[in-house]
Design brief:
The strands form seven sheets. This protein has a nine-stranded mixed β-sheet with strand order 2-1-11-10-12-13-14-15-16, with helices on both faces. A five-stranded parallel β-sheet has the order 4-3-5-6-7. Strands 17-18-22-23 form a four-stranded antiparallel β-sheet. The protein is 31% helix and 25% strand. With 510 residues, the protein is of the alpha/beta class. A hairpin with a 2-residue loop joins strand 24 (406-408) and strand 25 (411-413).
Length: 510
């Protein structure tokens, strides 16, 4: 029987669907209907699927909130989307309670033991605080929704920008034809099709757009999903072998940590069940990609797109080996243009800003901010600020985000290029490269490095290593070593938190 496995717990899809129908009835009783919002601040859990399904039945938006957020950050999203209900894990409520708007219905999910173990949650924070209703009790007392399902709005994902408040990507309702086409595209490029032998592992947080889409499509297809509460490299291999996992959506940071496992650990687990690994969301160093293909075989596929556009570019393992560093070619039905600062198309090999239109999604705007939607448009295409180029064969290569690009002495420098080299340095666990103020050159390069435990690294060694692989002007003048870097559970580093202190001291932001 298929369903969701979380540690030693299991809930089948029949139970989850029944709970979702009751939750939809309960939400309707709260006055939630079409175009309203239901927020969820949950780690991946049974309730994550139930809340999304329940909101979808009513034509409401499911609004996932990054569970690392403070009361101020979460409160902004709750207010901006005017959420009528918030479903939240018990241990997370104290950190955001002060930001929950008055009148918002709060429903608490006790924190499961496997999540407590993964995050060392104190005992007193695992259960429901007084004065709020338990999710399971709310579901149990609610009559199932029996009205025909409304047109799907899906999730309203709030994008995490480098500057300013996050923006909610709000879509028009999808037609049945759009939904069918979307399912076909996901099947083609993510390998998710109706197949009882498919076992999906979810370890990316479903408050991000791609893991949310991946998890919910797996749910709609009734596939068996295995949840890993927190990514840990050897534990991933253990779960793959135990559950015969066939499909995963992961990020390149996970590749790096997997490759650093000792050879005897890598050899200990049977990974022959793997059939389709999807990755995206961040650049992957060509050497890392090649090593993963050598280890896992030609099962690794990569895509490029955005929350606003969906999948626009894709390639498989064979193309990755043929075109090291590419993110692929434009998929059927999608459009891409790369333009200069005047909006003119650049030639092959020339770097420009990337504008996209995906083949899947309905039209969108930014919630309560149509002006920001217009700012990113070029005709019917949009940009998220990525810079890149196409080669003569149409393969796209990313350079960096336009806002992350460093301009030092009039020269464009792309941090992603430097990071892709630095992450391969022996003794480096993770790294972040960004621009900081420089009186003479405008900006200079700064690298923050997280060494592996017991690694003998210093700033001179880091600069020396990079100097062997990069032109001198690309070697950071400032290198800081830290025991840990600020990051989300997905592994994505909060560059903004590292960059901000340098610019605040300078009195400028560019």
């Amino acid at each position: 029987m298929t369903g969701v496995t979380s540690g030693e717990r299991f809930r089948n899809w029949t139970e989850i669907a029944a709970n979702a129908a009751r939750a939809a009835g309960g939400f309707a009783g709260l006055g939630i209907g079409e175009d309203d919002s239901v927020a969820l601040m949950l780690r991946n859990d049974f309730a994550t699927f139930e809340v999304n399904m329940a909101a979808g039945q009513l034509g409401a938006y499911a609004v996932p909130i990054n569970w690392h957020f403070t009361a101020e950050e979460a409160g902004y999203i709750l207010g901006d989307c005017r959420a009528k209900a918030l479903v939240i894990h018990a241990d997370l409520l104290p950190q955001v309670a002060a930001g929950v708007p008055a009148g918002t219905k709060v429903l608490v999910v006790p924190t499961p033991i496997e999540i407590c173990d993964a995050y060392a949650v104190p005992t007193e924070k695992r259960g429901a605080p007084e004065g709020v209703e338990l999710w399971d009790a709310f579901v149990a007392r609610s009559a199932p929704n029996t009205a025909p399902p409304k047109a799907s709005r899906g999730s309203m994902i709030y994008t995490s920008g480098t500057t300013g408040r996050p923006k909610g990507v709000k879509r028009e309702p999808s037609t049945p034809e759009q939904q069918a086409k979307g399912a076909a595209e996901i099947g083609k490029h993510w390998g998710l099709v109706s197949d009882p032998s498919t076992v999906v592992m979810m370890n990316g947080p479903m408050y991000h757009s791609a893991p949310a889409a991946y998890g919910m499509q797996s749910a709609r297809l009734g596939l068996h999903i295995v949840l890993q509460p927190r990514f840990e490299a050897e534990d991933m291999l253990r779960l793959i072998a135990r559950h015969k996992v066939s499909h995963m959506h992961i990020v390149p940071t996970m590749f790096v940590r997997l490759l650093r496992l000792p050879a005897e650990v890598k050899a200990k687990y049977d990974l022959s069940s793997l059939r389709w690994i999807t990755h995206g969301a961040a650049p992957c160093a060509p050497a890392v990609k090649r090593q993963m293909i050598d280890w896992w075989g030609s099962v690794i596929n990569e895509y490029y797109g955005a929350t606003e556009t969906g999948i626009v570019v894709w390639h498989d393992s064979a193309e990755a080996l043929k075109k090291p560093g590419t993110v692929g070619r434009v998929v059927a039905g999608a459009t891409m243009r790369i333009v200069d600062e005047q909006g003119r198309d650049v030639k092959p090999g020339e770097v420009g800003e990337i504008y996209l239109r995906g083949p899947l999604y309905s039209e969108f705007t930014y919630n309560n901010d149509d002006a920001k939607r217009r700012e990113i448009a070029l005709g019917d295409l949009v940009t998220v600020g990525d810079m890149g180029y196409q080669d003569q064969d149409g393969y796209l290569f990313l350079c960096d985000r336009k806002r992350d690009m460093i301009i030092s002495g009039g020269v464009n420098i792309y941090p992603a290029e430097i990071e892709s080299i630095l992450i391969q340095m022996p003794g480096v666990r993770d790294c972040a490269v960004f621009g900081i103020p420089d009186e003479e050159f405008g900006e200079q390069i700064c690298a923050h490095v997280e060494p592996l435990p017991d690694a003998a690294l210093d700033a001179a060694a880091v600069r020396g290593y990079l100097g062997q692989h990069l032109a001198r002007y690309k070697v950071p003048k400032v290198v800081e070593l830290s025991a840990s870097l600020p990051r989300e559970d997905s592994g994505k580093i909060f560059k903004r938190k590292l960059r901000s202190p340098y610019w605040e001291k300078s009195g400028r932001s560019i």
